[in-house]
Amino acid sequence: MNKQIETLVLKVAKLTRQTHELGIPVMILFEGIPASGKTRLCNELLLTLDGKYSSFIATKSPSEEDLRYQFFQKYWNGLPKKGDINVYFRSWYAHYIDFKENRIKEDFYKDYQTLREQIHQFESMLIADNHEIIKFYIEIDEEKRLEHIREMRQNPLTKWKAQEYEDVIESKIYEANMKAFVDESQDWEVIDYTNREHATLLMYEHMIQRLEAAISRHERKCTERNGHFTEGFSDDAFEMMTDKVKKDAYDQQIDALQSRLTELQFALYERKIPLIIVYEGMDAAGKGGNIKRLRQKLDPTGYEVNAIGAPTEDELNRHYLWRFAKDMPKSGHIELFDRSWYGRVLVERVEGFATVDEWQRAYDEINAFEKMWTDEHAIILKFFLTIDKDEQLKRFNDRVENVDKNWKITDEDWRNRDKWAEYQEASLDMIHKTHTSYAPWHVIATNHKKTARIKVLKHVIRTCEAELFGVMHD
């Protein structure tokens, strides 16, 4: 090995041990036309990295099953842990070009500009969360490239390799698309592989520059955890007046509404439309009972319920949206979230589990995250269940006194009650900043549980009917 390269290899190995110890996730992208040399450069780098915390990920053309999920879902699912390194042999850029040039999901994306925006938002979220994204675009003299391809074709064991990505995207088309990305951005390192040794040298020099910068930024980052709440904020932030559904009317309506929702579940499956329903609200507001009535007649093979608790160690070691993205439904299925990604701007804000920078930027991140799914015609409905303070105390005491409900009340519930005003203010900020046309909030008063259940069922049915059949309700 060239002595200069050997020195750089040792430096990169040392720096990646530091990023691992500091918990900085590193994502390294290799793009380039077939036989450009990216395979060899990729492998050169992999031999330098510690295999205990580095992974190699190759992007292929999507299978039929892949297409039942959102464009970015597999990349969300495979995000590196804090301190780990992912090396992408082709990435979401090649994935985008595949979609665009082969008109994949054309009905959703039309001119595919939306996907370009998703790429920007995806990377921005990760970079803000301390991920270091390093991008290499590999070029080579065309005569040298064709020589490589001829050599592969002459060997029966590597003949298949000569085709590589050409079966999916013609080289000239891929190159034109990638050049557009490279030319409009300053974050690509373009390496000419015509001289292998020089290319390897450039790769390691760029890695060192980026890793040193990432370590320096990590040491300067802000960790302020003050919640920024308004002193003397009103305890009565939500309007609780509501007409009550009488018992006879409830019994008549609930059965018919649940039956209609079952019919719509099958229609959603047939049309391959995913439905995502999010529940947030104060403790004892009736989220569990509401979800139970919503799912009572549904086909269990077509829905799942995610009851979200405190994050596990594995979840804390990744971007906060990771644990939710991996549970998003495929087309035609229903996912119910009993609490959700909104924990970042509610409990994590109030309790100081997230820094000020983390929860303040989360509003825009969440809006972008939800739009990724609605861009592919998913339905997202968000319900915030409200309750007044006196009714909550009544329900808490009922749980304490009722042996069958003791398990529902915890010390944490009482602690949260002491921060009622802070939770109310955080909830109002959340609704104001994340209520969008594509993923709206519905605030449901739940002092009367039966009324709340009817209202939620009606909202879900109306929204699904509008999406499926264009039926609009007053």
From TrEMBL:
<dbReference type="InterPro" id="IPR022488">
    <property type="entry name" value="PPK2-related"/>
</dbReference>
<protein>
    <submittedName>
        <fullName>Polyphosphate kinase 2 family protein</fullName>
    </submittedName>
</protein>
<dbReference type="Pfam" id="PF03976">
    <property type="entry name" value="PPK2"/>
</dbReference>
<dbReference type="InterPro" id="IPR027417">
    <property type="entry name" value="P-loop_NTPase"/>
</dbReference>
<keyword id="KW-0418">Kinase</keyword>
<dbReference type="GO" id="GO:0016301">
    <property type="term" value="F:kinase activity"/>
</dbReference>
<feature type="domain" description="Polyphosphate kinase-2-related">
    <location>
        <begin position="3"/>
        <end position="214"/>
    </location>
</feature>
<keyword id="KW-0808">Transferase</keyword>
<feature type="domain" description="Polyphosphate kinase-2-related">
    <location>
        <begin position="245"/>
        <end position="466"/>
    </location>
</feature>
